[in-house]
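Sample log: Probable alginate O-acetylase.
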Amino acid sequence: MPILSIEFALFFLAFFLLYWAVAGFVSVQNLLLLAAGLAWLYWLHPWFLLALCLYTLIIHVIAQNMVFSLSAQARRAWLISGIAAATAILLFFKYIDFLRPLVYAGTQWEIMDILMPLGLSYYVFQSIAYLGAAYKRRIPALRFHELCLHFGFFPTITAGPIFRASRFKSIGGMQAGAAVQLLEPRRLLFPALAISLILLGILKSWVLSAHIDSHFVAPMFDNPQQYSAAALLAAVYGYSIQLFFNFSGYSDLVIGMALLLGFRLPQNFAAPFYAVNIRDFWNRWHISLSTWIRDYLYIPLGGSRQGFTRAQLNLLIAFGLSGIWHGSGWCFFLWGILHALALISLNIKELFFGKIRRRAYWQKLLGIVLTFNFISFSFILFAVPSLGEASDFLRALLNNPNSGHAAEWLWIAAVYVGILLYPLWAWCLQSIIALFKRLPPWLWFAPIALALQAMIYFAPEGIPGFLYANF
């Protein structure tokens, strides 16, 4: 039952009606949320349900011992144990397939195939944030079922955003945290905004992302030798746009669903391809992850408090680990190192020449173009399964002749025009919100039905997966 399916839409509608039928009874609503999340995981695979419950039990036991320990030394020991256990579990499932050939080499050993639990990467990060917040007494320790709901909140478990237990910046700049939101009375939040985000999320993650993949990305990455250099360049740009539409569309969709359930989730994207440098990009792309890396990797390593050289080393470590988090294999690690080196280069440049305080229009435009090209070419490491295939693709891009087909160059031009016109998305969102606000709620079904019918008509066959669910 993928989120982009009729079955899930009917499931969510029925759940929505039942959920608000018991409005005012937070404990009952939480039990319904927990039951829905666990049932959905069981439907996808019983192992996903078992893995979530076992993991939650481990973190719950550690958190309870940490919170109720009398000595600071014992509390710190429990915190370190919890972080170590969470990290070890994540690395085991992430890298068991990568390490399998090394274990097999020269032995008769066999490791059975183990399915990675759905959402493990995200609820491991949430658990580390929860342990840190509970250790600093920023939040109360959650009971087992509350913690299980926090980790298994069904809108976010597939691919985030990372739903921290402590305070974070959510829609409209409001400060909210999962621990507080799970315990306080809730109400329907910004229904016009929620519906608008859901519709735009479906458009981006299903219609636009899937068409870009089928026409401009998948064929070229599958057989780069058969296409011109222009077509391959279009595929490089196309993959970046596809990944953005797919992931930001998913984020819009789940943020909208959460608002309909009375929850605020962190903002995850802020026009990332408008970034004028790599630092600006990471302030705009997968914000819940980039801020997590900053707060739980970069700053604990020392951040910038221990001198310029140590700060650059901390960046290298943090982004190297970020690459490892995205997946097993050298492609992901190299991707993280490339982004770290880009940030380090920017820091060195600013150390000697200073920061640009005010940019002329041409400087902004040049920064956007250079940053977008760096991001797009680094994403090749996401699009292919091995460094060898990445090398083959780049070799074909450099050596294949140009066909001269106008469509390829038109697509490349359209990418840049689309980036410049991206503010129109905000205008579209505001226009849809204004439309719903002008209509009485009982008439909302009409524009919703028309929009869904149009998207079904123009969408390709099949339901696309969420790319970041693989990372």
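Observation: DSSP finds 19 helices and two strands in the chain.
Observation: Residues 274 and 368 are 6 Å apart (CA to CA).
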